[in-house]
Design brief:
Blueprint (H helix, E strand, L loop, with lengths): L3 H28 L6 E6 L8 H15 L2 E7 L7 E9 L4 H8 L9 E5 L11 E5 L3 H12 L4 E7 L6 H4 L6 H21 L1 H9 L4 H35 L4 H31 L3 H6 L1 H47 L5 E5 L24 H14 L3 E6 L16 E4 L1 H7 L17 E7 L6 H16 L13 E7 L4 E3 L12 E3 L2 E5 L8 H9 L3 E3 L2 H10 L1 H6 E6 L2 H42 L1 H9 L4 H33 L4 H44 L6
Length: 710
């Protein structure tokens, strides 16, 4: 026997199976395309050992020997959030790669476009990154060993068709709360539906029907109704998918929908059976009177409603956090929008291990004129003179400027390329220009430090004597620096173009002292040129031109393993932050929908349990506020308490993750601006729906003179 609650549960099951299937596959394709057996993340070594082309050729040879498909996943530099590139390194396994090469890849997620590239375009790719493989675990082990021979380690790997890939389906567990609330909703609706049929089950027991017969009868009715619901849902669902993505990856979606539907049906039948067993072993008199059913219904409604409010509040806080993360990623990504051609230079510093030093700021032994360090430094000096190199050294030698009774001031070595990109100007509005002399430096001092100019210039000379090799600790052979000061406006925020994360070096500096060096500077030693390039303080301004020069010189090809886009990781982080933000918004929206459903259910449960009292109250002239005022106030306080507790926990948790006072103040400002509106919206919507549900059910009871509103 299927009452309205059970029919609602089955309809919700079909709808949410389709919705979760859509969200799961949408989330999965945010990480990788459908088809490969393995998803492998490879991290770069501390020191490169071979040219990129040699490593990629070795990967292709291994894949051909083992008959594997191997592809490299690379985000697009111009649109990392919407375009991914699939570079096929090997298509020997007859798996996904050959199909991609012939027909391309049609993405289920319409927000993402995958562009397939042949092997000829993949030879110069950096070996670190994300790989997609076919094959067995043994094949994966061989792939890892192949890369390990060149110093590259596999940071993580996941077999895509196992439980280990569940985080991708759940959007990194971002959809877990939504799936849990939907599951709880279906369980509660099923249990409540069975409880509402208590009288009918009592009659069946009096007629001699067994528990097994009653469950079989209900199961047959449930499966029949579900089949009809899926049939009705199929046409609009396929039409919507056709409009959304032209039915790409339809087979994968249908399999996922069928799997989720099967799990939901199994769960529903189990809950139905357990609820029926409890009713079957209760007093027949209580069952016929319906007293136990009303208590059960009310308890279930409160349980699901409280959980839905909590989840909605938590997901609202997660939306705030993801919005802040996305804003920060956009802040950094926006700086890289005008720096897409910057290239990270990967050096073969290991060749010079016998006669060179590997760290910035160290004196190091005397180098041979033909040593790799000398060749690399000479090439980079040539790039610098031609304006093809950007210098952005943050706090060289871990040194900062200091003034009396003040916090340390960040120092930044920069050349003309950096000054032009950041548009550094003096207090008169004129662009700050680097000097022309190789031993000269222009020290750009924020206006508020003007009284300390002499002290700052003295410290700048000491820094430059050290980095230029004039100090005794560096050999004393470098030039004596000549410096002059210019003054810049206060409250400046400069981007450092650091490729590493903020924990290694800040992405932005507030009011640093800039030491501007000429493009032909002699105030950076050979060892420091190499070391700062390895630490990614020195970048090529045009990675294509620099790569062409490397390929044209056989000796330089041995010294420089490759030059890859420095914007890769910032854009990848931006794409991930954007995906998480969209997912959290979808989660919050679904949680609010579930909250509304539970609110209606609670109104039905309350009026059903108190139907006789409501009928008597209404015909006696009571107002709805007299009847339900206390209940609404109680629910209001419950909602406020849960939402406020969640907001407070979110604020404490997020604050604990941020060390910077400025960032913490910014986060608190965002929380103050966003969490109260979210909390107020949840409260207002929930109370409005509950009031409407109570009034509608009460009117129906009075009109029909019946408490059957379920």
């Amino acid at each position: 026997m299927l009452n309205r609650s059970l029919r609602l549960a089955h309809t919700a099951l079909a709808l949410f199976a389709a919705l979760l299937g859509f969200l799961f596959l949408h989330s999965f394709e945010s990480y990788m395309p459908v088809g490969p057996a393995w998803y492998v993340d490879v991290v770069r070594p501390a020191q490169d050992k071979a040219p990129f082309s040699e490593i990629n050729a070795r990967i292709e040879a291994y894949a051909r020997t083992r008959r594997l498909d191997v592809a490299k996943l690379v985000p697009d530099r111009k649109d990392p959030k919407g375009v991914e590139h699939l570079y096929v390194l090997a298509a020997s396994g007859g798996s996904f790669a050959q199909s991609w090469m012939e027909r391309g890849y049609g993405a289920f997620n319409a927000e993402i476009s995958y562009k397939v590239h042949p092997r000829s375009e993949a030879s110069a790719l950096e070996p670190a990154g994300t790989y997609l493989l076919s094959g067995s675990r043994e094949d994966l082990r061989g792939f890892r060993e192949t890369l390990a021979g060149y110093g590259y380690n596999v940071d993580s790997y996941t077999e895509t068709m196992t439980l280990r890939s569940l985080p991708w389906l759940f959007g990194g567990y971002a959809l877990f709360g939504t799936a849990a609330v939907i599951t709880l909703l279906i369980v509660a609706l099923t249990g409540v539906g069975v409880a509402m049929n208590a009288r009918a089950y009592g009659v069946q027991r009096l007629q001699g029907m067994t528990l097994r017969q009653a469950w079989a009868l209900d199961a047959r009715a449930s499966l029949t109704f579900l089949s009809k619901a899926v049939g009705v849902l199929a046409v609009p669902l396929l039409a919507a998918l056709y409009l959304y993505n032209s039915l790409h990856q339809l087979t994968a979606f249908l399999l996922l929908f069928a799997a989720l539907g099967a799990l939901g049906v199994l769960l529903t039948l189990c809950v139905h059976g357990v609820s029926l067993w409890i009713l079957w072993h209760s007093s027949i008199l209580d069952a016929i009177k319906g007293s136990g059913a009303s208590r059960w219904t009310t308890a279930s409604a409160y349980m699901v409603r409280g959980t839905a409010i909590l989840v909605a509040a938590i997901l609202g806080g997660i939306v705030v956090n993801d919005a802040l993360t996305r804003t920060k990623a956009q802040d950094i990504g926006g700086q890289w929008e005008t720096a897409r051609d910057l290239g990270e230079i990967r050096l073969n510093v290991g060749l010079d291990s016998d006669d060179s030093s590997g760290s910035a700021g160290s004196a190091g032994p005397t180098r041979r004129a033909d040593s790799p360090d000398e060749r690399i430094a000479a090439w980079e000096r040539s790039l610098n003179r031609r304006g093809l190199l950007m210098v952005s050294i943050v706090n060289p030698g871990q040194e900062q400027f200091s003034v009396p009774a003040g916090a340390p001031i960040d120092s930044l070595y920069a050349n003309q390329s950096y000054l032009d990109r950041q548009r550094v100007k003096d207090v008169a509005g004129r662009p700050v220009t680097a000097p022309t002399g190789s031993d000269e430096a222009v020290v750009a001092i924020p206006q508020r430090y003007r009284p300390h100019t002499a002290q700052i210039l003295k410290q700048a000379v000491e820094m430059l004597r050290f980095t230029g090799g004039a100090s005794q600790s560096r050999g004393g052979n470098g030039p004596e620096p000549r410096v002059r000061a210019v003054y810049t406006p206060d409250e400046r925020r400069l981007f450092t173009y650091r490729v590493l994360d903020a924990s290694a070096s800040p992405a932005f500096l507030d009011d640093p002292v800039i030491v501007a060096l000429s493009n032909d500077t002699a105030l950076i030693t050979t060892s420091d040129y190499v070391a700062y390039t390895t630490q990614r303080h020195i970048l090529a301004t045009d990675h294509r031109k620099a790569s062409a020069e490397v390929r044209a010189d056989p000796q330089l090809s041995r010294d420089v393993f490759g030059i890859n886009s420095a914007a890769y990781e910032p854009f990848r982080n931006l794409a991930e932050a954007s995906r998480n933000f969209v997912t959290s918004i979808v989660n919050c929206a679904i949680a609010l929908v579930v909250l509304l459903i539970t609110t209606v259910g609670f109104a039905v449960a309350h009026t059903r349990r108190n139907g006789q009292l409501i009928f008597a109250s209404r015909i006696s002239g009571w107002t709805y506020w007299n009847m339900f005022g206390k209940l609404l106030i109680l629910d209001c306080w419950l909602t406020v308490a849960v939402v406020s507790l969640s907001a407070w926990l979110q604020a404490v948790m997020f604050n604990g993750q941020i060390a910077s006072e400025n960032a913490r103040a910014e986060l608190q400002s965002v929380l103050v601006r966003t969490i109260p509106p979210i909390s107020a919206s949840v409260l207002a919507v929930a109370l409005a729906i509950m009031a409407a549900g109570l009034i509608r059910c009460s009117r129906r009871i009075v009109t029909a003179r019946s408490i059957d509103v379920g």
